[in-house]
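Notebook p. 47: complex prediction with 1,3-dihydroxyacetonephosphate.
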Amino acid sequence: MRIVDLPTVREVIRLTTNMYRLGWDERNGGNVSVIIDPEEYQNYLPENPIRVFHFTFDATELIGKVFVVTGTGKYFKNVEVAPESNLGIVRIGKDGHSAELLWGFEDGGAPTGEFPSHMMSHIARLRIDPKHHVVMHCHATHTLALTYVLPPDEDEITRTLWRMSTECIVVFPEGVGYLPWMLCGGNDIGLATAKKAEHYRVVLWGAHGVFGMGETIDEAFGLLETVEKSAQIYFLTQGHVRQSITNDQLKELAEAFHVNYKKII
Ligand code: 13P
Ligand code: ZN
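Predicted complex, structure tokens below:
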């Protein structure tokens, strides 16, 4: 099997293609990183790195872990036609401050500029959930727009999203995290995002976009689809609302589906 045909690589190609088609990833917007388990990559990946990338944050907890990651400045619309240039497979080096390139980035590329947010969020989620694998970031249109019109308060944002569609409280009972505008692409926003990832699998970045996390690509993608759909319904109904899901109905849903929801209603 060719490395590009590893199941996780193929899934990332399909994911980024879908994200582009949904309009969530204009130009080079968005980035994805997914853990590949040893059972999948053993016998396929080389031991010696092609190149090494250094970073300043501490990724000691990820030493030896292998990720498929999108390249910085790369366009999601191009991933399908040239995965070997737009994607890379990296292994976190023994010093905990480097990523060893084992495949991809064939035109000299490097991992996403949001690598700190991705790796720090992986660390946070793995502490909570050993089955965690996926961190994805995008500029989902309605979700991004929501951060301009709702108060900068994650409980209010969560309540609004829950009310826009019946399934929401079941899909993200813990609510969503929110960070006010911060400079993207560095360690600070990475630390702040990872702190939110201790409580939430969805984190909105004010005036920028959203992060989704999960055990599988389907779970993380499904989360962001649900949030984005809900934000879209919000904008479609603004100024037209006659009735909405009540707090009692939300509680009834949470009880019926046995989810431990954030007690903000
Ligand atoms: P990269 O091209 O470095 O992945 O950055 C895109 C982006 O969305 C920044 O937040
Ligand atoms: Zn972005």
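Notes: The chain is about 40% helix and 15% strand. Residues 163 and 245 are 5 Å apart (CA to CA).
Next step: compare against the earlier run before touching the bench.
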